[in-house]
Specification:
The complex is a heterodimer of chains A (about 290) and B (about 575). With about 290 residues, chain A is α/β, with parallel strands linked by helices. Chain A contains eight helices and ten strands. Classes of the chains: A alpha/beta (about 290), B alpha+beta (about 575). Chain B: It comes from Miscanthus lutarioriparius.
């Protein structure tokens, strides 16, 4: 029994957590309709599930004001059916519910500006990492987890700290973060995330063939990636956002205690409370401690 | 060979007082003429009748006798000489002549007991003579070697051997100023079995060698003796150091070195030698000369050479004590011997010897010559190391050096580039700012979700027309490639070559049944074509076939190029 069990979990069993950007402001202006995008996504999810009967897929939607799980392949369907259409039904139903909930939350939160609205990437990454942690603690035999972010909205500098924390925590857990940019602009956060965690960053040229990109690049498990030549980015935008104004800066002031970044000289660090403007004591007046 | 005239007494027997007279010998015969002309003891004997000669050991008042015996022991001629010298001369002459005649080794002189018996032949050597010979044999191994060579290889008699030895000694004396070829520096002590004493014997010869091979010791000698210590004391310390090194007693050596400054000098690395070695190595052109063997000359370098006990040990960098290796010592000795500088000083006084050696070694090359040589060497090295193939072409204009772009500018420009390139594509993906309000945006999204629910997954995500075109193109391309390869490379070697079409089919999952059918038909057609091609190839003549295929390939390539342009993909 144990030998058969050991053969069940091999190197190519994957847990893919897909973070989907459902920012309505982005999708309203996007070239690819959200419906098509959703179809590509569902096909991709099915493809992963077809690769190995032990594969698991979790889809997390990142909205403007909230995040939620919209699909978990390990959940039993209420109708009892298993298959492509079943997956699709579950996912679409949940997505619809989530969008409605997000709309309500956004309407209640008046501070969101439409033009610069960003999706809650940090929240979605946190949810993904929590799920993965639960999987890690479920036992020694678990699939190899990874995160795939389908991002279209621009980066929100206000999420810099949270996103970086998520990235570092993913790095520590050895969970690669793959990124597929469906928007027009590159995402500095996701470039850094993929770079640090050893994932793949891709910005497809033809969004009509999104499924093919996903299937060719992101469907492979971690073990098989060693044998493939996957796309590489030309460069990574390592620019940080300042903690005070959330502006993207490349030159700033860093607190020597907590490494927080500021664009202007400050007297006190807002993160850890250290005072910068303290005058050094005169060395002559101090008692000679060596004697 | 000459002749010999000598006064002697002829005796018929031992007890005979003897008839004084003159003994004349030449190569063929010897004659004896008594002083008294009336005496009848006159004879003229051919040496050919003489078979051997014997002589006695002269002790005390005994007379020096020489007995020339005839063959078959039929008697002989006994001569008594006034002194041993005369007797020896005669004896040598006789031995030579006999040797020449007979070509055999003369018998060795036998030593008779003190109370000599008259019947036995007197063959006694004087004690002094024997002592002299023993001393010779003991001290000079060369003599023994030459003796061996002469006796067994050249059949010379004993007189000749001695002469050869004298000749060698002469040569040796000529080379006296030079260091002996034998390595005497390894002074071996004698130990008294009972007490804890170790005795060293140092001869002037050894001192000469030590000064020649170890300049540091020489310098120490000049510095210390007789100011700081006596000569005996100096050599005592030196021997002590040598003993400690030989017995590999590093702990005791370190302790003694710590306590005794002078002793420490003997235990440390020879810095003069190191300096000389460095200078020598500098002058060697590594690109042209293979002369330098760094393992031997760099005595300060660790991990080189075999230690005296035969194993290779790593050197403790902190220890100041020298780790001499056998190869280093031998090479140093050989270098000194080959230098072959003979000194004018003949005296055995170590001090004068040391000074003379120092003087002889003081020949620093003039700096200008060294600089020129150095410069020449560097030029040579530069010439040698230039590899023409790898030189950059000098005619091309200088390239602009690389510079690091400002990251902000770079990434901003990347955005612009991305937008520009996307603007040119057929999708026309532009960054459109959303002018809708929050409600409107969410409404739009909800509509999308509704459309999804309505349509479900009926719309294929892969456009079959485009996919088919791509697959057909890929199949055609593969067909052409296969043909081309078959013409140029034998089939067996390309069996493992994965088809482009098959690879394409693997990565692109087919979702449409229609597309699947079409692809199947294409595949069947392809296999049929392969079989036909195979038959044609086997049946047709190779030359005609090659020409036909080349023509065909060209035609197809032209048509496909045209086709490509037409499609616009």
């Amino acid at each position: 029994m144990t030998s058969a069990h050991s053969k069940l979990y091999s190197d190519d069993v994957s847990l893919v957590v897909v973070v989907v950007d459902t920012n309505p402001f982005f999708w309203a202006a996007a070239a690819l309709p959200f419906a098509d995008f959703f179809a590509h996504l569902i096909h991709f999810v099915n493809s992963i599930l077809l690769l190995n009967h032990l594969n698991r897929v979790v889809v997390i939607a990142a909205g403007v004001s909230s995040c939620a799980y919209i699909l978990d392949s390990s959940d039993a369907s209420p109708s009892g059916g298993v298959g492509v259409s079943d997956t699709f039904d579950r996912a679409s139903r949940k997505a619809e519910e989530f969008i409605a909930q997000d709309a309500r939350a956004t309407a209640g939160n008046g501070s969101v500006a439409s033009a610069n609205a960003t999706s809650l990437l940090s929240g979605a990454l946190s949810l993904a990492l929590c799920y993965i942690q639960r999987i890690f603690r479920s036992g020694t035999r678990h699939p190899q987890p990874r995160i795939l972010c389908l991002q279209g909205s621009p980066d929100g500098p206000e999420q810099y700290v949270a996103v970086m924390n998520s990235i570092f925590s993913a790095q520590r857990s050895m969970v690669p973060i793959d990124s597929c940019i469906v928007g027009t602009q590159d995402s500095a956060f996701l470039q850094q995330a993929s770079y640090i965690t050893g994932g793949v960053y891709l910005k497809p040229q033809e969004l009509n063939g999104l499924f093919q990109y996903l299937a060719a690049v992101f469907a492979t498990d971690l073990h098989s990636r060693a044998f493939l030549r996957l796309p590489k980015t030309l460069g990574v935008d390592f620019r940080a956002s300042c903690f005070c104004h959330k502006k993207t800066i490349d030159m700033g002031y860093v607190c020597s205690i907590c490494l927080s970044i500021f664009c202007k000289n400050q007297k006190k660090c807002s993160t850890c409370g250290s005072e910068f403007s303290r005058v050094m004591p005169d060395l002559n007046s101090m008692p000679d401690q060596s004697k | 060979m000459g002749s010999l005239t000598i006064g002697a007494k002829y005796k018929t027997t031992i007890k005979d007082p003897g008839t004084p007279g003159i003994l004349r010998m030449n190569d063929d015969r010897f004659t004896f003429t008594p002083n008294d002309p009336r005496s009848a003891m006159k004879f003229n004997v051919d040496f050919r009748t003489i078979k051997g000669h014997k002589f006695n050991k002269v002790e005390g008042n005994k007379a020096a006798l020489l007995n020339l015996s005839k063959e078959d022991k039929a008697g002989g001629y006994i001569f008594e000489f006034d002194n041993v010298g005369n007797r020896d001369l005669s004896r040598d002459f006789v031995a030579r002549v006999l040797g020449k005649h007979q070509g055999i080794v003369p018998p060795r002189p036998t030593v008779t007991p003190e109370n000599s018996v008259a019947s036995a032949a007197l063959e006694q050597l004087s004690a002094a003579e024997v002592e002299r010979r023993v001393k010779l044999l003991r001290e000079d191994r060369n003599y023994i070697r030459s003796l061996f060579l002469e006796i067994f290889c050249k059949n010379l008699n004993f007189g000749q051997q001695e002469r050869t030895y004298l000749k060698m000694k002469q040569i040796k004396d000529q080379n006296k100023g030079q260091v002996s070829r034998m390595r005497l520096v390894d002074i071996k002590p004698t130990t008294d079995g009972r007490t804890n004493k170790v005795t060293f014997q140092i001869t002037p010869e050894m001192i000469h060698q030590i000064f020649a091979e170890k300049p540091a010791v020489r310098r120490a000698y000049l510095d210390f003796v007789p100011k700081k210590m006596s000569e005996t004391r100096f050599w005592e310390k030196y021997c002590r150091a040598e003993y400690l090194v030989r017995t590999k007693n590093t702990a005791a050596a370190t302790a003694e070195a710590a306590g005794d400054e002078e002793l420490a000098i003997f235990l440390k690395n020879d810095d003069i030698l190191a300096k000389e070695a460095k200078m020598k190595i500098k002058r060697v052109d590594p690109t042209l000369d293979m002369e330098a063997d760094t393992g031997d000359d760099y005595i300060h370098l660790p991990d080189h050479g075999i230690h005296r006990d035969g194993n290779k040990e790593t050197v403790d960098a902190d220890s100041e004590l020298a780790r001499r290796t056998l190869s280093q010592d031998l090479n140093r000795h050989a270098a000194v011997v080959l230098e072959g500088r003979s000194l004018d000083v003949e005296s055995t006084d170590p001090k004068t010897l040391a000074e003379a050696l120092v003087r002889s070694k003081k020949e620093p090359p003039s700096t200008s010559i060294v600089d020129d040589a150095n410069h020449e060497r560097l030029v040579k090295v530069a010439r040698m190391t230039e590899i023409e193939d790898l030189q950059a072409p000098r005619s091309l204009p200088c390239m602009r050096p690389l510079c690091i772009k400002d990251p902000k500018e770079y990434f901003d420009s990347q955005q612009a580039n991305a937008l520009r390139s996307l603007g040119g594509s057929n999708d026309g993906r532009k960054a459109r700012t959303c002018s809708l309000s929050t409600e409107e945006a969410f409404h739009h999204l909800m509509d999308q979700m509704s459309s999804i629910k309505v349509n479900k997954l009926n719309c294929p995500i892969i456009q079959s027309d485009m996919a088919l075109k791509e697959v057909s193109k890929a199949c055609l391309a593969e067909l052409q490639l296969q043909e081309f390869l078959e013409l140029t490379i034998p089939r067996s070697s390309i069996d493992g070559y994965p088809g482009i079409a098959t690879a394409f089919l693997v990565i692109d999952p087919i979702t449409s049944a229609v597309l699947y059918n079409k692809v199947q038909r294409v595949k069947e057609a392809m296999t049929q074509i392969y079989q036909k091609l195979q038959l044609i190839k086997e049946s047709a003549q190779p030359d005609a076939l090659d020409a036909a295929f080349n023509h065909d390939v060209e035609q197809q390539q032209k048509s496909s190029k045209a086709g490509n342009r037409h499609n616009g993909f």
